[in-house]
Amino acid sequence: MEIKLFHTNDVHSHLYNYLKIMSFLKNKKRQYGDRMVYVDLGDHVDRSHPYTEATLGKGNIELLNKAGCEVATIGNNEGITLQKDDLKTLYDDAEFEVICANLREVGSTNPYFKPYVIKEISGIKFGFIAATVEFTPFYKALGWEVSEAFDWVLNAIREINTEVDCIVMMSHLGRYDDESLAMMFPEIDVILSSHTHHYLTEGDWVGDTLLAAAGRFGDFTGEVTLTFDGRELTGRKAKLYETDLLSSVDDNYYDVGKDMLQTVVEEDVRPISRRLYSASEFVTRLAAMIRKFTDSDAGLVHTGLVVKPFEGGSLTDYDLHKVLPHAINAVQIELTGRELKEVFNQAAKHEFKDEIIRGLGFRGDIFGCFVTHNIGYIQSEREYYIGDELIDDRGMYTLGTLDMYTFGRIFPQFRYSKKTYLMPEFLRDIYKEYNTEI
Q: Distance between CA atoms of 116 and 130, rounded to whole angstroms?
């Protein structure tokens, strides 16, 4: 007997693709009936889409319901781009199980969601376990703890190993961790892999464990075929269906979201230009807003944050969302005077100005140039200032900037500095708070 396991991951609110996937899955349900199950691995929600922004992700849950999802887990976009109470209520109307072994409220020892679920499919007992990526400082800023994924997975395996015929790991940990999981826990029969946006055309084997992954943005739908002789698993194979080859469907969700975001934020707004290689008035103001919001000595942002220009006039939530669609938060970083000078000099080189940036919460394309606020340099004197005060190399200063700069290679100085992440406000929320002051 064959059982089909369909899976999606990292859709990121690419709803046009997902609507085609929904239609595809409904056809498969008619074909296979109770011999199939569909699961989603998280990051279905992405507030860069107007419909997701307007419904705070609940619209995505409605679509998962319509697609026949039976089990889902959370990705970092569900976990850290929503306020804590919004995540708690996100799945109130879900018609599927939500599992995640390693998400807890701060101070709790128990997972907030079920760590696993056992489902019987055509007489075969499946144990689904899930875990999500450990973006620890971001979760802690929201009152959550996400850690020790491997320990929680081990606990779940121990609890269900003798009760089920097949163990499926629903992982939002990334490919490297999934390969480690397969090596450490041979009890897992299938790992559905996500977060790092990789895809495996026919799956991949690590020991006796099959890994399957369906890329990103709904570009693919994954299918794992599991063959059983009685209740013994005798065969496993994976394949992908390319969404571009699926039948087209009508998509009005963007317009629905647009209509829901028509509240006026500000009247008589000056035009907002998209200037990548020079500091516009808007980006300069945004650097000042970030500095004020983080209560820092200086501010630092980049011009590529403006994704779409605004012609001027009445600025609505929808207009502001088009300008700043990013899932980016502010952070305050403590630096010595010497380190702050190094950051300023590095930013002034604009080494990333032509790079296409993907991920890190950034929802634009070209990075652009850095723009600073309240920090200056007099070249003839080789002197650096915060406001009117000369920077002391041994003094301590605070820089208000963006969390995306703390992830990678842009500023090595940030790696070991004290960082305070301010969440859950996005850039558009900060603009709405300070637009009348700055």
A: 6
Domain limit, last residue, from 253, 279, 300: 253
Task: Provide CB contacts within 8 A for 389, sequence distance 6+.
Answer: none
| Position 258 pLDDT exceeds 70 | yes
For residue 422, the model assigns a pLDDT of 96
Give helix 175-184 / helix 149-160 axis angle, nearest 10°.
40
| Shared-domain flag, residues 163 and 280 | no
State whether 68 and 125 are in the same domain: yes
Q: Is residue 242 located within the same domain as residue 340? A: no
pLDDT reading at 418 higher than 70:
yes
Overall average pLDDT of the 280-308 stretch: 97
Question: Cα–Cα distance between 45 and 33 in angstroms, integer?
Answer: 28
Structural domain contains residue 258: no
Task: For residue 424, say if its preceding peptide bond is cis, omega within 30 degrees of 0.
Answer: yes
Instruction: With a cut of 80, say whether residue 381 has pLDDT above it.
Output: no
Q: Which domain holds residue 54?
A: 2-253
CA–CA gap between residue 172 and residue 74 (Å, rounded): 7
End-to-end CA distance of the chain: 66
pTM of the full structure: 0.91
* Antiparallel, parallel or unpaired: β 396-402 and 298-302: parallel
Co-location of 46 and 178 in the same domain: yes
In a domain, 223, yes or no: yes
Q: Which two tokens stand for residue 217?
A: 């943005």
Residue 72 and residue 39 in contact, taking contact as beta carbons nearer than 8 Å? yes
Over residues 83-122, the pLDDT tens digits come to 999 999 999 999 999 999 999 999 898 999 999 999 999 9
The CATH number of the domain holding residue 176 is: 3.60.21.10
Q: pLDDT grade, residue 358 (50/70/90)?
A: confident
Percent of the chain with pLDDT over 70: 99
Measure the CA–CA gap between 438 and 373, rounded to whole angstroms. Answer: 12
| pLDDT at residue 369 greater than cutoff 90 | yes
β-bridge partners, 385:
376, 390
Buried b (16+ CB within 10 A) or exposed e, 24-45: bbeebbeeeeeebbbbbbbbbb
Q: Are residues 92 and 151 in the same domain?
A: yes
Question: Could you give the residue ranges of the DSSP H alpha helices within 33-141?
Answer: 50-55, 58-66, 76-80, 84-90, 136-141
Do 225 and 279 lie in one domain? The reply is: no
Last-in-domain residue among 226, 253, 280? 253
